[in-house]
Amino acid sequence: MRYSGIGGQAVMEGVMMKNQEKYAVAVRKPDQEIVVETSVYEGIVKNKKIRNMPILRGVFSFIESLTLGMKTLTFSASFFEEEEEEAPKKHREKKERRALTEEERERREKRQESAMMGGTVALSVVLAVAIFMILPYYISVFFQRFIASQTVIALLEGVVRLAIFIGYVAAISLMPDIRRVYMYHGAEHKCINCIEHGLDLTVENVRGSSRQHKRCGTSFLLIVMLISIVFFMFIRVDNGVLRLVLRILLIPVIAGVSYEFIRLAGRSDNAFVNILSKPGLWLQKLTTREPDDAMIEVGIASVEAVFDWKAYVDEIRQNEK
Fold it and tell me: Distance of CA 186 to CAs 279, 291, 305, Å?
């Protein structure tokens, strides 16, 4: 398998693919038409020396993935709003457009979109920290009444964190809408695996490709959970408030270290790295589902909008000769 550099995510009834700064969102509309929108996302840090620094690049990548993910999800969801909600909205917008110039309207829409994205990302981060960091810590504090060993307490906190995370992933997979998102997630992985194994990007070849991939965000989050156990086992303070503060302050560091592992795994076929990647691949059996051919077509459309897979596959074949 050869590293392609492309990655993506599933959105509502679609797939987003990103290649360097360029990304595309392909969505199958209710009338079955596939709409593809391409754009450029340069990231939060423009200086390449800074954004490519180990550990820091993982922090930047995590924030950028959240921001772009929310933006593309919002775009895909816009095709599936209720008709009764859409009509009065369009009527209001039509009246507003009469009072605004084109330039003023574009500026206002961009400000509104930026504010909404910023608020959504901030709320998501706060909820994630509260559920996956703070809650497990306080559960472990309760057990300090019965367990004297701080090492055991740290392990218990990590196990609780893992249980909450895996339980959350499993629970939302029961929702019909999320199940379809997981199917598109499978289509995304299968498309990338198809071309990275030197196969033409066709529905038939994609269908036969694996739906697990070592560079998946699911694997990244699991690695975050596991590495946090190691960090909190060895970084100890007596003050309870300071322990909680340290858990929050160390999140960017843990995310950065986790990113470095995922980055290495995606570029390596080393046997040891492959073994360490197994838990993430196992967890992806929950967060991906086998897509149907129509979903695969959407994934292919998204890839083709940002990536010249034919030249890439030809290069792989030339190198194998």
Answer: 17, 6, 19
What's the pLDDT tens digit per position in 208-253? 999 999 999 999 999 999 999 999 888 888 788 888 899 899 999 9
- Give the SS3 label for residue 237: coil
> In this structure, how many other beta carbons lie within 10 angstroms of the beta carbon of residue 2?
15
pLDDT, tens digit, for every residue of 287-310?
999 999 999 999 999 999 999 999
Buried b / exposed e over 31-59, threshold 16 CB at 10 Å, is eeebbbbeeeeeeebeeeeebeeeebbbb
The 10 Å Cβ neighbour count of residue 314 is 12
For residue range 261-288, list pLDDT tens digits in order. 999 998 888 899 999 999 999 999 999 9
CA distance 35 to 37: 7
Cα separation, 158 vs 143, whole angstroms: 13
Structure tokens at 48: 């390449």
In this model, does residue 320 exceed pLDDT 90? Answer: no
3-state DSSP assignment of residue 55: coil
Provide the residue ranges of all domains of the chain, joining segments of one domain with +.
6-320
Nearest to 283 by CA among 220, 218, 229, 227: 218
Please check whether residue 26 is in contact with residue 38, taking contact to mean a CB–CB distance below 8 angstroms. no
Distance CA 41, CA 89 (A): 28
Q: What does pTM read for this prediction?
A: 0.85
